[in-house]
């Protein structure tokens, strides 16, 4: 169930030492969605933090053949901190402050920095959920949270990913559940020579959901095409202060040239705006 980016170099499997990081809470409404989908498991979805990386690596190595160096995860976490998330099992609270969070899934995502088509869009580098926590809707929750952040933060119009042609389970997830479409087949995409499906999903439905949420909260400030409204498009009320006075009543300003320099004797001049003196 793994999209793959050809950028990083594969890494060998190795022992990962646990690192603890305090959990970052997500909005309550989203947390309720997770809990309702898995009533027997208390789950939390939080942004990927550098301290989560060893546990994300463990999840990746356990489930997927494409593995990455820690610095590649860190690259995502620091460059696009809004886009990558982890799923944490809260059913067994830590017994001490030294207990690490139980990370059971993650999505690693980024924005394409130089899109060939010139359209801002995101890319899913990797998605994985531990076998013990599958069929709980976690993969979809992780993906939707990342897609929403792509739209809200970077104005992404669509999202892409790659998946092995032999990975039927992942293909069903992306096509049937997440509504991705196969765009093309990339020959010998993976290091072992296997082909990959290049898949794509339009994010128009995310734009619609974000707009509906903003309208419900009374904070919508986007144009119909999804772009942010410019300052001049917003009604800021009647002008006040000097801007609210007639031209005759505005204080006039004059531009004076004054010498500057260490000895105040250099020939360089700068412009300095000074208010006109009141007439005596």
UniProtKB/TrEMBL annotation:
UniProt keyword terms in alphabetical order: Acyltransferase, Transferase
Region (Disordered): 218-253
Domain of life: Eukaryota
Residue spans of biased composition, Acidic residues class: 230-241
Keyword Transferase: yes
InterPro entries cross-referenced by the UniProt entry: Acyl_CoA_acyltransferase, Ard1-like, GNAT_dom
GO cellular component: NatA complex
Name the record gives this protein: N-acetyltransferase domain-containing protein
Species: Drechslerella dactyloides (Nematode-trapping fungus)
Lineage start: Eukaryota, Fungi, Dikarya, Ascomycota, Pezizomycotina
């Amino acid at each position: 169930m793994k999209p793959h980016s050809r950028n990083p170099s594969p890494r060998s499997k190795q022992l990962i030492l646990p690192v603890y990081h305090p959990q970052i809470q997500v909005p309550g409404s989203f947390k309720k969605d997770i809990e309702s989908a898995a009533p027997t498991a208390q789950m939390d979805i939080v942004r990927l933090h550098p301290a989560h990386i060893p546990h994300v690596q463990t999840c990746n190595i356990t489930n997927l053949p494409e593995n990455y160096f820690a610095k590649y995860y860190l690259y995502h976490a620091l460059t696009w901190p809004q886009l990558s998330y982890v799923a944490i099992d809260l059913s067994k609270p830590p017994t001490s402050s030294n207990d690490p969070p139980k990370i059971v899934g993650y999505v690693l995502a980024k924005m394409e920095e130089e899109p060939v088509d010139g359209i801002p869009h995101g890319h899913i580098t990797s998605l994985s959920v531990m076998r013990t926590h599958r069929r709980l809707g976690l993969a979809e929750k992780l993906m939707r949270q990342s897609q929403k952040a792509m739209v809200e933060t970077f104005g992404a119009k669509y999202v892409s990913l790659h998946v092995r042609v032999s990975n039927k389970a992942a293909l069903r997830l992306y096509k049937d559940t997440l509504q991705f479409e196969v765009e093309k087949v990339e020959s010998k995409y993976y290091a072992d020579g296997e082909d990959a499906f290049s898949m794509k999903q339009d994010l128009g439905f995310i734009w619609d959901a974000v707009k509906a949420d903003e309208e419900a909260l009374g904070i919508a400030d986007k144009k119909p095409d999804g772009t942010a409204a410019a300052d001049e498009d917003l009604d800021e009320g009647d002008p006040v202060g000097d801007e609210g006075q007639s031209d005759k009543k505005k204080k006039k300003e004059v531009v004076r040239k004054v010498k500057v320099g260490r000895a105040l004797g250099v020939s360089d001049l700068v412009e300095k705006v000074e208010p006109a003196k009141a007439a005596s």
